[in-house]
């Protein structure tokens, strides 16, 4: 689609959801996840794993709830039935979402859920705790005499490597967002407000079956120099740079795609930086593969940038943040493509690739696509942007 060639009504009417949707994660896969978590928990020297509400609880149980001040948690013994801790008044909702068989331990509003966890864990031995569990709760568990260790090796050890079913969810979400990105480019016109583009992108994500936008950033001109934008509602002018970063979810699995392109004509130095960014993204992708330390992918992108006189390190003009992050049920999750993260890549790991270049107070260029590690290297979920003037072919 051509930049600025259409309008919102036409583009929304043209959207057709995929004819064949990716199915949700099967019950057999949830059972396999629990078995894997048990093995990793035992390897960490613990007898049980305590998982907090959020993406990790969804990963192991199918319960898609966000965290609140009320404890909802999974206590997974290495040997024995899983235990779900939940407010009693939420029992019906819990049972409707729960995809595993579990012993329900329910607490009333005037009771302590931490005491309930301690009672369930007593006699098991050491408990590995989700690193996102609130500090106050973990300290109370220690007060009850429960020995605790870090549960990240077990949780991340499961979640970092995606199954074929997870890859399918991620692939569908990213394909949806790429189409939405192309349709957003088509509705641009001089004077359009960023808020109007954001509303269109949300409507388009709904129309295509992605449940609306999980997030959306629309930046024009100088605002592109700030990785997460500026406050206020901008209006697009002729001959400005456009940066749009957005994503949706399929069965909880995220897309997160950024495109940066010219609306009209832009200065030659912007075009030159765009070319460097494109080359750095390609270099990062080429460096990825099984056994490769995550930090080596970040280093590959920075070699290109420093060769163009940018940086070094995080200095500007240059790349002020990591080259990429893991993605799955959380939009940002381990491991990260950043110096110091020596996690070896393995088939099934999924990452963003976005070595953004910032020229302070003038402009920024971020090209963001995602790849998954294969047995022989890496594979893109989406085709990277071709040029600054032809973002979608």
TrEMBL record:
Q: List the keywords (alphabetical).
A: Hydrolase, Metal-binding, Metalloprotease, Protease
Q: Which residues form the Peptidase M24 domain?
A: 169-375
Gene3D superfamilies to which the protein is assigned, alphabetical = Creatinase/methionine aminopeptidase superfamily (3.90.230.10), Creatinase/prolidase N-terminal domain (3.40.350.10)
Q: Domain Creatinase N-terminal: where?
A: 33-161
Q: Does the keyword 4Fe-4S apply?
A: no
Which Pfam families did the record assign? Creatinase_N, Peptidase_M24
Q: Which family does it belong to?
A: Belongs to the peptidase M24B family.
Q: What is this protein called?
A: Xaa-Pro peptidase family protein
